[in-house]
Fold each of these.
Amino acid sequence: MQLVIGNKNYSSWSMRPWVLLRQFGIPFDEVMARFDGFEAGSSFKQRVRALSGAGKVPILVEDDGFAVWDTLAIAEYVADKHPDKALWPRDPKRRARARSLCAEMHSGFGAVRNHFGMNIEASLPEVGARVLAEQPDARADLARIVALWQDALADSGGPFLFGDYSIADAYFAPVVMRIGTYALPVPADIAAYCDRVTASAGVAAWIAEALEEKDFRPFEEPYRTARD
């Protein structure tokens, strides 16, 4: 099984299935399709379109060539293949709630995505403060995420959103990265949850490899002109 991903420093969508597979010890071969642009003629687009007409990462490819794209579809496929690992919570109500959180993340929070692009190596607290002051939609997105996490943690008792680590924690890992990069203010209980996610095996491994890339991409850098 191969997982085709983009740059670890920038690709929030790629991060989700990678850390999920790594966290649960599910073997896979990583295939890196480095970003060189997103126009049709870019090497990146040509490479990934050979595997999926969507032309985006991540893509999960089985040995027989069967491909699954879209992060939620990949998560569901892997969960079906490994029912013993309980990638979703086993309790039906918690499982439904975890799916609801992931679906909301998948389709929403556009202000967080647009204003706080994932950039693990960067430290941009002044950008975070300015954007939150100027953009009410970004403030609303952050407040909604905090409320979702607090409700889940209160119900489960932690340490992760639904007790044990699940797809939901992997799905929100890029948000945790954004909170760190932009020093977004969150309550103490949410900061502690972010610390636990950051220290989890899959996320810690992703961060370490992202920091080793040293691969500055100007089209992914609205707030910097060079690496720090």
Amino acid sequence: MAIEESKEMYLETIFLLSQKNTEVRSIDISEYMGYSKPSVSRAMGLLKDGGYIEEDYKSGIVLTEKGKKKAEAVYERHKTLTKMFISLGVDEKTATEDACKIEHYISDATYGAIKKHFEKYGV
């Protein structure tokens, strides 16, 4: 997994977990993603160093404004691509899995064209 993809996956996971829970902890991320606790701990350190998260024992892991912006962008791509695949006749499970893979690699230009198309035609 590329570094950028990994970072985006962690940020998206923190974003999704924060929508469900009042506090996000490393163990929650580990369980959600199926990664070991040491792997998650290392990733949290990198995200913290990059200014994407803040972490303390009281409030857990919290996205910074920079982290939230990136996470929301990745999640939007995920939702749009999933919707596109489903509209093409792909089953929901496959559409979701494929969107998760593609969301990290698709260019801004291509994604922008897809998003514009779906907004124009209301799909």
